[in-house]
Amino acid sequence: MSAHPCSGERVKLEIADIVRTHRAELEAKHVVTLEQRRVLSAMALCRTASLGGHLDVCRSCPLTRPSYNSCRNRHCPKCQALAQERWIAARAEKLLPVGHFHAVFTVPSELRPLAQKAPRVVYDALFQAASATLQELARSRVKATLGITLVLHTWTRELNFHPHVHAIVSAGGLTEAGWKSMSLKYLFHVEVMGDLLCGKMLTLLRQAHQAGKLPGTSAELEQLLRRLKQHNWVVYVKKAFRHAEHVLKYLGRYTHRVAISNGRFVAISQQAVTFRTKEGKATTLSPVEFLRRFLQHILPKGFQKIRHYGLYASAADEQLLRARDALSCSGSEQARLNIERLKTWQAALVHLTGRDPSLCPNCGGQIEHWPLAAEARAPPEARRAP
User: Fold this and answer.
1) What CA dihedral angle connects 179, 184, 186 and 188, to 10 degrees?
2) Are 169 and 176 in contact (CB under 8 A)?
3) CA 93 – CA 84 distance, rounded (Å)
4) How far is the C-alpha of 351 from the C-alpha of 346, rounded, in Å?
5) Which stretches within 171-229 are classed as H helix?
6) Who's near 172: CB < 8 A, 6+ residues apart?
7) Is residue 190 helix, strand or coil?
8) Are the C-beta atoms of residues 88 and 219 closer than 8 Å to each other?
9) How confident is the model at residue 202 (pLDDT cuts 50, 70, 90)?
10) Distance between CA atoms of 290 and 181, rounded to whole angstroms?
């Protein structure tokens, strides 16, 4: 499937092709859950005749072409652009016009097997522990309520399993007296954050096991917790964002990112899949091993991988308004306009690509959209996933 380097032709490489060709072999060698099967089916059918769509017919020239529906699965690399833009437009209206810190909370490798067996429980605990760590330090050190957004990622560039949470934290917060700013040079001591994260995670995991939400015996869990307690829990703070627009650019890249984008593929064949990693390097895997790694990053059904706390929590609108008053600012009018522009798929396409779907790309004439029925009913597990 790779293009000849001198041909000048760009061949479209997609994960859907790997799924369609090697799914049967994958399921013969590995256990695939119902949710994972749903994602595989959705991706294989995405933007094909199986999901139906519409026929673009120009009134002024012979142009006739089909446009097929997308699967809208959140794990599909072809279906994130619109959801991402709508999310960014909504967040832009709430984001405070101050600098923001960027911290990353990771878990020791010993916890990863348990996270694979009980992902919802471990991921929830990581969200709770990370947010509680930040909010506790904000109360004790800054005496203020900060704005916090957490985003879960579970992968490395090689698609290995590595759960971690990215935290975007406002450089300042709301106090009884008004707004209190923080220096962008310092959030909190990383070792203190790591120690708090460790203690809170171990408590939450023990509580989850007592509630019957984790597998294994109490003795097995306590043995794991003792090993985890001996580790240094790594929290690191990356370069701060000085302006709110920098935060939005970052969130635009990472909030709706999936484990791998189609743009990273270098070559796909019957025997191997090669994709870019980082620093100009690439990794080659067998197709089945590639799919196995990809499936590690399928989130539990309905799981929220982006969560907001403090001033950015959904229940804190009154506090957020007070913070805006203290900062003498209001919600972004441009953000509200962007939300309006993204309400319909036609308007969204204009916003994202600059191409008006109502106009013929050949002659500029008016395009009619005729509905196309699905050629075949999609399998039950392929129906729209969250």
Assistant:
1) 50
2) no
3) 15
4) 9
5) 190-210, 218-229
6) 98, 142, 144, 146, 179, 180, 181, 182
7) helix
8) no
9) very high
10) 46
In this structure, what DSSP letter does residue 233 have?
P
Instruction: Using only the alpha carbons of the chain, give its radius of gyration.
Output: 24
pLDDT digit string (tens) for 143-194? 999 999 999 999 999 999 999 999 999 999 999 999 999 999 999 999 999 9
Placement of tokens 């307690």 in the chain: 229
Beta strands in 313-379 (DSSP E): 367-372
Contacting residues for 84 by C-beta, under 8 A, at least 6 apart: 252, 255, 256
Q: How many CA atoms lie within 13 A of 128 on its CB side?
A: 15
Strand partners, 283: 275
Q: Do 162 and 156 touch, CB atoms closer than 8 A?
A: yes
Give per-residue pLDDT as tens, 289-334: 999 999 999 999 999 999 999 999 999 999 999 999 999 875 544 4
What end-to-end distance do the CA atoms of the chain give, in Å? Answer: 31
291 close to 26: Cβ distance less than 8 angstroms:
yes
In angstroms, rounded to a whole number, what is the distance separating the alpha carbons of residues 256 and 74?
8
